[in-house]
Predict the 3D structure of the following.
Amino acid sequence: MKFVDEATLTVRGGDGGHGCVSFRREKFVPRGGPDGGDGGDGGSVYLRGDSHLNTLADFRSRRNFQAQRGLDGSGRNQTGAQGEDVVIDVPIGTLVRDGETGELIADITDEQHTLVAHGGFHGLGNARFKSSTNRAPRQSTPGSEGESRTLNLELKLMADVGLLGLPNAGKSTLVRAVSEATPKVADYPFTTLHPHLGVVRVGAYRRFVIADIPGIIEGAAEGAGLGLQFLRHLARTRLLLHLVDLGDDSGPGPVESVRQIEKELQQSKEVSFAQPRWLVGTKADLLPEEEGEARLAALCRELDWTGPSFLISAVAHRGLEPLIQQIDRFLEAWREQAA
């Protein structure tokens, strides 16, 4: 299924039912009086977070949602039935903005219900207007119209760990190796055309979510390539893994690769350059073990890198377990600090 992370919806609450003008007419009950009932309230439209969704693709075919109208009141003081609400499921991590003003309406971060279009208020029947001086009122009120608005949805995936790197740095291979996600892997750039989420299990009870986005190229912050469009999905991550191909001598080189990505991060409005970031040298299986360690050490010296660094081979499953354990400890410390 094609990944879609933006959508525009039109939502409308149901109109309120009209009040009724009616008078009681029964045998042996003279001058029965007014008995027109109220209308029913119109249904409202809600957004609900769904942890089983990770795309807005469902809204490619359906973009208009309207709640049910409230029924009109009737005689014998019968109130009209309330219109049914409409509940729209969206992925957790969806930002909801007003289509006209751009105002942020909601940030769907859990399985919450968010009201986005209120149903109309019910009309009043003539029984509401009787008084000692007006014993036979012939007035009622109509139901009000439901609220109508345009919504702009923007999905920012909720992942604990995000992957950064140039095309073919080994991001998709890493996701496949540590989770059950199956992003496409091939020996050419831009095999990843949309983000993938993978659940990494640590032991029997712990897990974290890792996000793979398309590779970033030079000029991404100005709109080049695919990376800019999906950088937003790294904005919520707790940790960034910066993957660098240490086994390819035909590209710009590890040092230039890192600096190129850092330049794009500094210019990006989506991802903070201050987010925790670890350096991960990939494709160690293409190098002798000692040479791989030497290349990673030389890279850290050249960059004056003081943060954590790792050497892995996702294909050969080398160095993955220490990396996963370290990520788990980092996230656990973050949760304790946030509690």
The two ends are 37 Å apart (CA to CA). The chain has five helices and 14 strands. Helices lie at 171-178, 227-230, 254-267, 289-303, 320-338. Confidence is low (pLDDT under 50) at residues 186-193, 217-227.
